[in-house]
Design brief:
Order of helices and strands: HHHHHH
Structural class: mainly alpha
Radius of gyration: 18 Å
Number of helices: 6
Number of domains: 1
Strand content: under 5%
Largest sheet: none
Length: 160
Protein backbone atom coordinates (compact mmCIF):
# COMPACT_ATOMS: atom_id res chain seq x y z
CA UNK A 1 0.00 0.00 0.00
CA UNK A 2 1.44 3.38 -1.01
CA UNK A 3 1.64 6.35 1.35
CA UNK A 4 -1.30 8.21 -0.32
CA UNK A 5 -3.39 5.03 -0.08
CA UNK A 6 -2.52 4.73 3.63
CA UNK A 7 -3.54 8.36 4.15
CA UNK A 8 -6.91 7.77 2.45
CA UNK A 9 -7.48 4.69 4.61
CA UNK A 10 -6.49 6.54 7.77
CA UNK A 11 -8.85 9.40 6.97
CA UNK A 12 -11.96 7.40 6.16
CA UNK A 13 -15.07 8.82 7.81
CA UNK A 14 -15.94 5.94 10.15
CA UNK A 15 -12.37 5.69 11.43
CA UNK A 16 -12.15 9.37 12.42
CA UNK A 17 -14.80 8.99 15.12
CA UNK A 18 -12.99 6.03 16.67
CA UNK A 19 -9.75 7.98 17.03
CA UNK A 20 -11.22 10.90 18.98
CA UNK A 21 -11.92 9.08 22.29
CA UNK A 22 -8.56 7.32 22.03
CA UNK A 23 -6.74 10.61 21.51
CA UNK A 24 -8.66 12.18 24.42
CA UNK A 25 -7.54 9.27 26.62
CA UNK A 26 -3.96 9.74 25.42
CA UNK A 27 -4.22 13.41 26.38
CA UNK A 28 -5.41 12.36 29.83
CA UNK A 29 -2.37 10.12 30.01
CA UNK A 30 -0.13 13.12 29.31
CA UNK A 31 -1.66 14.92 32.30
CA UNK A 32 -0.93 11.89 34.47
CA UNK A 33 2.60 11.78 33.08
CA UNK A 34 3.10 15.45 33.96
CA UNK A 35 1.79 14.78 37.47
CA UNK A 36 4.25 11.91 37.87
CA UNK A 37 7.24 13.61 36.26
CA UNK A 38 7.19 16.76 38.37
CA UNK A 39 7.71 15.01 41.71
CA UNK A 40 10.06 12.46 40.13
CA UNK A 41 12.20 15.29 38.76
CA UNK A 42 12.31 16.90 42.20
CA UNK A 43 13.50 13.60 43.71
CA UNK A 44 16.06 12.34 41.19
CA UNK A 45 16.74 15.40 39.01
CA UNK A 46 14.84 16.60 35.97
CA UNK A 47 17.09 15.07 33.32
CA UNK A 48 17.23 11.70 35.12
CA UNK A 49 13.44 11.70 35.40
CA UNK A 50 13.18 12.38 31.68
CA UNK A 51 15.71 9.67 30.90
CA UNK A 52 13.86 7.15 33.06
CA UNK A 53 10.55 7.86 31.30
CA UNK A 54 12.14 7.45 27.87
CA UNK A 55 14.07 4.37 28.98
CA UNK A 56 10.91 2.62 30.16
CA UNK A 57 9.09 3.70 26.98
CA UNK A 58 11.92 2.56 24.72
CA UNK A 59 12.09 -0.83 26.43
CA UNK A 60 8.33 -1.29 26.07
CA UNK A 61 8.35 -0.28 22.40
CA UNK A 62 11.32 -2.57 21.75
CA UNK A 63 9.42 -5.54 23.23
CA UNK A 64 6.25 -4.71 21.31
CA UNK A 65 8.29 -4.36 18.09
CA UNK A 66 9.88 -7.76 18.65
CA UNK A 67 6.50 -9.37 19.22
CA UNK A 68 4.73 -7.75 16.29
CA UNK A 69 7.55 -7.81 13.72
CA UNK A 70 8.26 -5.24 11.03
CA UNK A 71 5.53 -5.01 8.38
CA UNK A 72 6.96 -5.66 4.91
CA UNK A 73 5.44 -2.57 3.29
CA UNK A 74 7.35 -0.09 5.52
CA UNK A 75 10.51 1.60 4.27
CA UNK A 76 13.78 1.35 6.13
CA UNK A 77 15.05 4.30 8.17
CA UNK A 78 18.06 4.70 5.90
CA UNK A 79 15.81 5.56 2.94
CA UNK A 80 13.92 8.33 4.78
CA UNK A 81 14.75 12.03 4.62
CA UNK A 82 16.80 12.90 7.72
CA UNK A 83 14.43 15.73 8.72
CA UNK A 84 11.72 13.15 9.47
CA UNK A 85 13.80 11.79 12.33
CA UNK A 86 14.11 15.18 14.07
CA UNK A 87 10.84 14.47 15.88
CA UNK A 88 12.94 12.31 18.18
CA UNK A 89 14.59 15.50 19.43
CA UNK A 90 11.29 17.14 20.27
CA UNK A 91 9.98 14.40 22.58
CA UNK A 92 12.72 14.73 25.21
CA UNK A 93 12.48 18.53 25.11
CA UNK A 94 8.74 18.26 25.73
CA UNK A 95 9.20 15.86 28.65
CA UNK A 96 11.99 17.98 30.17
CA UNK A 97 9.65 20.98 30.03
CA UNK A 98 6.89 18.93 31.73
CA UNK A 99 9.34 17.91 34.42
CA UNK A 100 10.53 21.46 35.04
CA UNK A 101 7.23 23.35 34.76
CA UNK A 102 4.77 21.07 36.53
CA UNK A 103 6.10 21.49 40.08
CA UNK A 104 6.21 25.27 39.62
CA UNK A 105 2.97 26.09 37.78
CA UNK A 106 0.92 22.91 38.33
CA UNK A 107 -0.45 20.24 36.02
CA UNK A 108 -3.45 22.24 34.74
CA UNK A 109 -1.41 25.31 33.83
CA UNK A 110 1.31 23.19 32.23
CA UNK A 111 -1.18 21.22 30.15
CA UNK A 112 -3.21 24.22 28.95
CA UNK A 113 0.00 26.07 28.03
CA UNK A 114 1.19 23.03 26.09
CA UNK A 115 -2.22 22.70 24.46
CA UNK A 116 -2.09 26.35 23.37
CA UNK A 117 1.24 25.81 21.67
CA UNK A 118 0.16 22.52 20.13
CA UNK A 119 -3.03 23.91 18.63
CA UNK A 120 -1.38 27.09 17.34
CA UNK A 121 1.40 25.17 15.58
CA UNK A 122 -1.03 22.46 14.42
CA UNK A 123 -3.18 25.03 12.68
CA UNK A 124 -0.13 26.29 10.79
CA UNK A 125 0.92 22.75 9.86
CA UNK A 126 -2.59 21.92 8.63
CA UNK A 127 -3.02 25.21 6.76
CA UNK A 128 0.27 25.03 4.87
CA UNK A 129 0.44 21.22 4.54
CA UNK A 130 3.90 21.04 6.11
CA UNK A 131 5.65 17.67 6.58
CA UNK A 132 3.58 15.97 3.89
CA UNK A 133 0.28 16.44 5.72
CA UNK A 134 -2.76 17.10 3.52
CA UNK A 135 -3.74 20.78 3.70
CA UNK A 136 -6.73 21.81 5.78
CA UNK A 137 -7.67 25.45 5.46
CA UNK A 138 -7.66 27.42 8.70
CA UNK A 139 -10.86 29.39 8.80
CA UNK A 140 -12.66 31.52 11.35
CA UNK A 141 -13.97 28.54 13.35
CA UNK A 142 -10.50 27.09 13.89
CA UNK A 143 -9.07 30.48 14.83
CA UNK A 144 -11.96 30.98 17.26
CA UNK A 145 -11.20 27.60 18.82
CA UNK A 146 -7.58 28.67 19.31
CA UNK A 147 -8.78 31.95 20.86
CA UNK A 148 -10.92 29.95 23.33
CA UNK A 149 -7.90 27.85 24.31
CA UNK A 150 -5.82 30.99 24.83
CA UNK A 151 -8.70 32.44 26.89
CA UNK A 152 -8.66 29.25 29.01
CA UNK A 153 -4.91 29.70 29.47
CA UNK A 154 -5.43 33.27 30.69
CA UNK A 155 -8.28 32.28 33.03
CA UNK A 156 -6.30 29.40 34.54
CA UNK A 157 -3.24 31.64 34.94
CA UNK A 158 -5.28 34.33 36.70
CA UNK A 159 -6.93 31.75 38.95
CA UNK A 160 -3.61 30.22 39.98
Amino acid sequence: MTQPERRKTAHSGSMNGAYIPLVIMAGMGLSVEAGLLGPLGEEVGHLWATLSIFGVGAALLFLISLLTGKPAEHRSFSSLPRWQLTGGLLGPLYVIMLTLATPVIGVAMTMIAILSGQVAKSLLIDHFGWFGISRKRVGVQRLFALALIVAALILIAEGA
